[in-house]
Amino acid sequence: MVTMVVNGVRRDIQAPTDSPLLYVLRNDLELSGPQFGCGLAQCGACSVLLDGKEIRSCTTPLSAAVGKEVTTLEGLPARWAQQKGLSKADAEKTLHPVQEAWIEEQTPLCGFCQNGMMIKATELLERVASPSVAEIKAAFTTSGPSAHLCRCGSYTAIIEAVQRAATTMAKGR
Ligand code: FES
Ligand code: FES
Question: pTM of the prediction?
Fold first, then answer.
């Protein structure tokens, strides 16, 4: 058995430590945010934050997450609530500004890639408060093992949503 913190909660996992983290999150912990796209670290659909850094959970073994903090799409509201110091009651009514921006900009088309897009956006905005368009493009294309791919072509809407989220986060900090 191994232990890791997932979305702020300590979880004891009984699975082989060479299991892909994605399988553990989806099958053992029933977290359906991260998606199985390519399974080869080539698309970003499966992305999660590991100690705040975006990783591809399809090719990351469970052993790499032992003793660390994993944040999935489901954990973004609580992550933001903690950063803002919200009460537990307020936290339960809160979405992460990235999620709000994605809704307001109506960013998803089929939606399959959008888990990874929001995870990458969160990682970027925690590091760079007001990224330029060039910095946003670089984050989504060169700051991981591969570019985040959207077969529906939602890239323009993603850039606009990141900028909207940056504005909201700047006000909330
Ligand atoms: S499913 Fe993990 S990068 Fe594509
Ligand atoms: S919205 Fe369909 S793959 Fe990105």
Answer: 0.97
**Coil vs helix vs strand at 111:** coil
Q: Label the pairing between strands 69-71 and 2-6.
A: parallel
Does residue 125 contact residue 88 with C-beta atoms inside 8 Å? Answer: no
Per the listing, tokens 């995870």 go with 119
**Å from CA of 28 to ligand 2 middle:** 26
- How far, in Å, from the CA of 37 to the mean position of ligand 2? 11
The tokens for 138 are 């670089």
Give pLDDT, residue 91: 79
pLDDT in tens, 10-38: 999 999 999 999 999 999 999 999 999 99
What region does 147 belong to: left with phi over 0, alpha with psi -120 to 50, or beta?
A: beta
Question: Which atom, in ligand 1's list, is nearest to the CA of 42?
Answer: 3
Q: Cα separation of 76 and 15, whole Å?
A: 25
Closest atom, ligand 2, to C-alpha of 152: 2
